[in-house]
Amino acid sequence: MRLWLVRHGQTEANTRQLFCGKSESPLTPTGIGQACVVANLLRNVPFDHVLMSERERARHTTQLLLQPHHPQPRTSALLNEMDFGAWEMQHHSTLIEHDKQYQAWCADWQHVTPPEGESFAMFTERVAKLAQAARSLQADNLLLVSHQGVISMLLAQLLNMPPAAMWHFAIEQGAWSRIDLKGDYATLRYLNNHGNSTHND
């Protein structure tokens, strides 16, 4: 299976550098352009399935990506970004100055949970379920449209790396990545590719 990974296009929250997990933030004109560029790059890939996050920024990106011959996309909560709870739509500079729990989270993000949010352990377990669900699909080419955190964690898990290794993968907007799965073995073929797809390699 070829697993194609696309991060949603730039959002207003991205431009303001705000925590945005469960919150909705629309694509900017730049984000719309990024999605259209990736749509052109992947136009010849014969996707068997297309799965997307429930968030509107991912849904909008997916709509822009799809070609007439592609299957109808399906939403999955497993693809949603981490829920930052009370820190949603807040900036680091404000939180670090006024929120002691955020200060604790910065020092130990694997064990401190955002208020009313999702713990790192819960997020890790959810993405593990996503990896299992992806492997179970009968497909040659599967497209996932999601978020920075989900895609980086998914790559770490599929490559049998520890969860904290997700930070080694900075997922760019306006690009596509691909990881090939064969049984329990995974090969990262492309990361943040800005060129045309080569799905037959």
Characterise this structure.
Helix content is 35%, strand content 17%. The chain has 201 residues and is an alpha/beta fold. A six-stranded mixed beta sheet has the order 3-2-4-1-5-6. Helix 3 (56-65) links the parallel strand 2 (49-52) and strand 3 (74-75). Helix 2 (29-41) crosses helix 3. The chain is globular and about 50 Å long. The mean pLDDT is 96.
Which descriptors apply to this entry?
alpha/beta; six-stranded mixed sheet; 6 strands; 7 helices; 201 residues
What's the arrangement of secondary structure elements?
Layout: E1 2-7, H1 12-16, H2 29-41, E2 49-52, H3 56-65, E3 74-75, H4 92-98, H5 100-107, H6 120-136, E4 141-146, H7 148-158, E5 176-182, E6 185-193
Parallel strand pairs: 1-4, 2-3, 2-4
Antiparallel strand pairs: 1-5, 5-6
Helix pairs in contact: 2-3, 6-7
Structural class: alpha/beta
Count of alpha/pi helices: 7
Shape: globular
Q: What's the alpha carbon Rg, rounded to whole Å?
A: 17 Å
Sequence of secondary-structure elements: EHHEHEHHHEHEE
List unreliable stretches of 5+ residues.
Answer: none
Strand content: 15-25%
Q: How far apart are the first and last residues' alpha carbons, in Å?
A: 13 Å
Summarize the structure.
This protein is α/β, with parallel strands linked by helices and 201 residues long.
